[in-house]
User: Fold this.
Amino acid sequence: MEKMKLTLLYSDLKSDIDIIEKELETALNSSSHLINDASLHLLQAGGKRIRPVFVLMSAKFGQYNIDQIKNIAVPLELIHMASLVHDDVIDDSDLRRGRHTVKAQWNNRVAMYTGDFIFARALEYVTSIDNVKVHQILAKTMVEICNGEVIQIEDKFRNNQNLKDYFRRIKRKTALLIESSCELGAVVGGLDVKNVRRLKRFGYFVGMSYQIVDDILDFTATDKELGKPAGSDLLQGNITLPILLLKDHPTILRFVEKASKGSVSESDRMEMLKVVRNSDAIKKAIALSNQYLRKALKEVDALPNHPMKKKLRDVALFIGKRKF
Amino acid sequence: MDATYIQQSIEQLKTNIFMHVRHRTLIQHTGSPVLDENQLFYLLLPFLNGEKWDEQIFESAITVGIVHASLNEHDKISEKNATSKEQQLTVLSGDYYSGRYYEILAHSGNISLIRQLSEGIVSRCEHQIKQYEASQYTINEWYQVISVIQTELIKRFYQVYEYEQYGSFMHTGLLLLQLQKELQLHQSGTTSNLFAKMQDSVLGEEGSIELIIQKEIDSLKSLLNENIRTSTILKDDLKLYIQHQVALNEKVTRER
Assistant:
């Protein structure tokens, strides 16, 4: 339902999104039956495709040519997909979007090779662009995302972290790839430096809001909506914003302690969810997300007049207000 | 040029690879990148033989080593359980090294090598994953899998810099050395997944898997020796080094 609403928001881009979807299928085509099966499994799981959408929307402010723009939109989605496949190994996740993960359906090694295959396909695809700057931005993003994940593992179950640690982490984990999607769309679209920078900042602010909302939904949405048990982040030791805002709560402290030993029961999880849902931490986290959204909208205002301005605003607002 | 010089060149390349992927947390938890000296030797073979070699080519060789290191990290991931911090960070080591090779080549604008290496990785993954497919493969197809895993990225490097004349030495040498290694591991009681697959592929055939692989090793050895004997491009020191590499590997195998 939510995905449908989002699709409606960028209905103007539908034909181009369809091209991207087709290209994703082509890019994932392999001589290996197993990689084909795993990739098809990933494609069928769907996804909001927000990274390609941001690439296309940003490029619209310049010289828009889908045959060129797709060469950066497709790799960005592939990089996102590949990192999810590897993340599921790291998090030992069996479910994503209600479907079995590659590592659960097959095994960790299959997930590693499938992820490596997709990463490589992304780079193979992007080499049709000979603008070195594009490669430098994308490469830096990939390295930084990895650094963010290393920090996330280092920070697991660490109680003495602060908001700065959290924002630094989500910047690399999520905001960077959305920031780069907007920046790269703008660069490939040939925008001037000022507007490239505006769209880059827009992507960063939207990305931060997106991750905060994601972290809120992990507690407020139902297991069914999430396609995995609510509170999974904390179960895995990831101290996200709602928890940081009430981390001295005895129930939460107890839960983190138990989770670090792998001894959480279903009633512990329910009790933790009740505490988080009934606290003001959710409200405070939403307020922080909205601050980022406001900053994102300010960047949109500064962009040259174009029908895409409204779309950018609408998609940003949707992302910041989505229910799951 | 003697064996010491060759060894020093390999060590220097190794040091450079380590320097380019240095990451405090990753080293602390997962150790230094794993590199195969035989592969590094073949990466350097054109240089050691006096071919045109500049800073850009040396940097390219470093990135090929980094890609090997990246994929080697992912080979360390357990099939069933990768929940320990060390395993989690090993996944990320591989991804980090992969990002670094791209970053280095993007910085110098070497897009043609990025393309070649990504195509090489695609092919390597497609072959590596065959171990987990339900399909049955013949022993020769498994040799092909090992060959692609060992040689594909170096082959791509040779293509970009027009060193293809070294391809047959590299191809035969690395396949031979890896088969010796696989056999040696099996005889010492640690059978790799790939070896087990080779074993399955000859079930019901005459002769044990050890004999079949030994026969292939002998045949590759004859081929390599013949290539070396008739080669007009390889320096004598390098011919000796390659033969010594194989003999040394064999000696280790026999001693076990």
